[in-house]
Design goal:
By secondary structure, this protein is α/β, with parallel strands linked by helices. The chain has one domain: Barwin-like endoglucanases (Beta Barrel). Helix content is 20%, strand content 32%. The longest helix has 16 residues. The chain is globular and about 40 Å long. 24% of the residues are buried.
């Protein structure tokens, strides 16, 4: 019994000490901006070239939360791998793609192969928050 209590105490101390979960975005300043948001899929007719490779050279994997940004937003700090919170959506998305030069003040939310979901999203004005690393 004593041996069991020692083992239990040791495991408890170990797991309680390792129970801290740090916010990976705690060291970011968040900027907000209103943009037009649309959605896209990994389909050849919606993309240039390979529908699974972004303009930054990253691979698109259905189920991951990515966004493409218009090139004018790159200059505002929405650079490659920037975290983005989108009004109306719960998760944090990551900038992994950039859009054609013709688009301005716009994001395109990646929705894998789910065309129905992308069409249901449509086109809307939303407020986004994007993280700029603190220096």
């Amino acid at each position: 019994m004593v041996r069991f209590l020692i083992i239990l105490t040791t495991f408890s101390q170990f797991f309680l000490g390792c129970n801290k979960i740090e916010d990976p975005y705690a060291n970011y300043d968040w900027q907000t901006i209103e943009v037009t948001a649309t959605a896209y899929n990994s389909l050849r007719y919606q993309t240039d070239g390979d529908p699974h490779i972004t303009a930054f050279g990253d691979s698109l994997v259905p189920g991951l939360r990515y966004v493409a940004v218009s090139r004018d937003l790159l200059k505002k700090g929405l650079k490659h791998n920037t975290p983005v919170k989108i009004e109306g959506l719960d998760s944090i998305y990551i900038v992994k793609d950039k859009m054609h030069y013709r688009w301005k003040n716009r994001i395109d939310i990646y929705m894998g192969l789910n065309v129905k979901k992308a069409k249901a999203w449509g086109k809307k004005k939303v407020t986004i928050a994007y993280g700029i690393p603190k220096e």
